[in-house]
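Hi V.,

You were right to ask for the full record rather than a summary. Here it is.
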Amino acid sequence: MSDISVNDSVYEANMGDYFALLKPRVMSLVVFTALVGLLVAPVPVHPFIGFVGILCIAVGAGASGALNMWWDADIDSQMKRTAGRPIPSGRVAPGEALAIGLALSSFAIVLLALATNFLAAFLLAFTVFFYAVIYSMWLKRSTPQNIVIGGAAGAFPPMIGWAIATGGVSIESVLMFGLIFMWTPPHFWSLALFVKSDYGNAGVPMLTETHGRDATRRHILIYMLLLVPVALGLGLTSIGGPIYMSVAVIMNAWFLKGSYDIWRRTDADCEADKHAVEINAFKVSLYYLFLHFGALLAEAALRPYGLGGW
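Predicted structure:
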């Protein structure tokens, strides 16, 4: 472990500091959606192989987080929300974060290739590359659509889980990818509308900073309208069924109503009720993915008993 100088004192980094580099909260969503992708696939997977596969996806996601923190250390230090992260706070040296990210990503990709198949390993490698290079190093600082395109990195895990089981890609895995990809913008931007950020001071062109709050509200509604057919379409595939479709109809109607209400509002409305509508829409978005993927899992669990699926 390293000794980092902080305010003329010496701080010895501990395991908690290194673990924080891996963005464990993000990793939990990655693991859950990847596990669902693996379990709903039509090909059974040996439990040990499945465990190794999910472990590799989790480690790869953590490695992406470490590489992102290494690259973004300069802007993280300028924002209150991220100033306490291991690198800007001085608890972990930038070189260590880079080494950890490269080592863990290499380990996860190679092990996944050896334990499962090369397609799954390729998808994991592309996910790490996409998040660390295409999103972090390029898109995040160059376009207000950064969160849209960058959301692809978080959408690949169920596709990787499916590839572990089947060795291929199908309409089901593509739509699971699409569900997360299209969900990310309305989820993130509804949060951005009521959380005061300092992205502008850090030079990050987030949509709320570059185009204003009215444009952000329009974008939320547009992406929500694009999300609905993806979510419902997934319910018509081989992994869908009445349980999933019921959840999808209710949750999409709820989230769409919230997005429509956001679109109709003005800054004065938001100040008057302290962003109550935006906060409610964001809370719905938190349940949205969990319930959709949970419903897919329920369909798969009940299918052997003739109760799941169409």
